[in-house]
């Protein structure tokens, strides 16, 4: 995640929130929230190198496989649960979305928007896209799936989630006009209905 996108997503998190960051990577977002917004909480990460980086940053981290769920956390135990560039890597994306709504009062999800115009152009030319947000060849990607704004809206509705804000991010800038076409990252803030 670029620094500009990190700052834009951090702006969605209220000051002093208790945060759970699922698939927290090296802990940069949670460290930013701790330093600039007085947030507390935990990151969840599987990769050993990223877990070590979190510890180095002073981020509380649990090494867990998200495909196994969040049974270690009680209902509504966090103010905000983040899934930033995580959902597309999970086998059980729908289950994890429900778990996000269970353990947090608010969920924030961000993922590469497959409907962004450069991706569409690449598909029209007969090739899977390789872009800044989707930097892997189709045969060498860690992404299990790709998604669009509409895909997430349908998934949220199916699972009884109320989307309170949705927009795109392009180079750290919020995109509210035609975000499905004009933004490389889709962002959704939601609550349980």
TrEMBL record:
Pfam families hit by this protein: MetW (PF07021)
CDD domains named among the record's database cross-references: AdoMet_MTases (cd02440)
InterPro entries named among the record's database cross-references: Methionine_synth_MetW, SAM-dependent_MTases_sf
The name this protein goes by in its record: Methionine biosynthesis protein MetW
